[in-house]
């Protein structure tokens, strides 16, 4: 399976002890059902744009909060980097939808 930005976010959050399971990540960070990540993997589909947007927003918010402290500046920067990756995925998916429709 291809590694997605959500997988990277989950792994980081698990490493720092912010979440203990994919179920917790799906509910608390993605605002989805506890089986969301498992369903993506099983069906081999990409996360929805809405899910990516929620994740990006949370990462950006907490990244800014964390970078305001000297102790965890690097972690805050990593959150912001992952937020930017989510936004890139959103843009890439969006271009894929509209580009096929454009006919000049």
Write structural notes for this entry:
It is globular, with a radius of gyration of 15 Å. Helices cover 69% and strands 0% of the residues. The protein has one domain. Helix 1 (5-15) runs antiparallel to helix 5 and helix 4 (49-67) runs antiparallel to helix 5. The protein has 104 residues and is mainly alpha-helical. The chain has 5 helices and no strands.
Main pleated-sheet profile = none
Instruction: Give the count of structural domains.
Output: 1
Uncertain segments:
none
Run of helices and strands: HHHHH
How large, in whole angstroms, is the Cα Rg?
Answer: 15 Å
Annotation field: number of helices? 5
Strand runs, count: 0
Strand residues, percent? under 5%
- The averaged pLDDT comes out at 92
Percent range of helical residues: 55-70%
Principal-axis shape: globular
Classification by helices and strands: mainly alpha
First-residue to last-residue Cα separation = 37 Å
Short description:
By secondary structure, the protein is mostly helical. 69% of the residues lie in helices and 0% in strands.
Key structural traits:
69% helix, single chain
């Amino acid at each position: 399976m291809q590694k997605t930005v959500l997988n990277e976010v989950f792994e980081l959050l698990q490493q720092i002890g912010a979440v203990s399971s994919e179920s917790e990540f799906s509910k608390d960070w993605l605002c989805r059902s506890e089986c969301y990540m498992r369903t993506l993997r099983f069906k081999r589909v990409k996360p929805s744009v809405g899910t990516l947007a929620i994740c990006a927003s949370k990462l950006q918010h907490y990244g800014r909060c964390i970078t305001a402290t000297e102790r965890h500046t690097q972690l805050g920067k990593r959150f912001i980097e992952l937020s930017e990756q989510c936004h890139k995925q959103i843009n890439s998916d969006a271009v894929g939808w509209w580009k096929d429709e454009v006919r000049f």
